[in-house]
Amino acid sequence: MDIENFVHHAATPGYVFFDRSVLDALCGLDCVAPSNESELSMWLSKYQYFSKVFVLPPWKAIYENDDERDDTFEHGLRHRAGMVP
């Protein structure tokens, strides 16, 4: 889904903000099936984002569960802190 999103917006003029990236997906997959360095390099060179990123703190007031996000806000905080695999 992240790759489709990247490709869909690749020709968009100006800046495009993504909530997640191909890198997020690769990190998730790497936890399940570790990739070697050359595989990761290939993916990261193929799907390059702008060098400046915005990292914002979790915001409970706008957090909603849906089909994609079925964990609780608290679970997300623990996962972010590395406490949940």
Task: Set down the secondary structure blueprint.
Layout: H1 2-9, H2 22-32, H3 37-46, H4 73-80
* Total helical segments: 4
Q: For the report, how would you describe the main beta sheet?
A: none
Question: From the helix content, strand content and strand pairing, which structural class follows?
Answer: mainly alpha
Uncertain regions spanning at least 5 consecutive residues = none
The helix content is 40-55%
Would you write up a description of this structure?
The chain has four helices and no strands. With 85 residues, the protein is mainly α. The model has no long low-confidence stretch (mean pLDDT 85). It is globular, with a radius of gyration of 15 Å. The longest helix is centred in the first third of the chain and has 11 residues, at 22-32.
Top keywords for this entry?
85 residues; mainly alpha; single chain; 4 helices
Brief write-up:
The protein has 85 residues and is mainly alpha-helical.
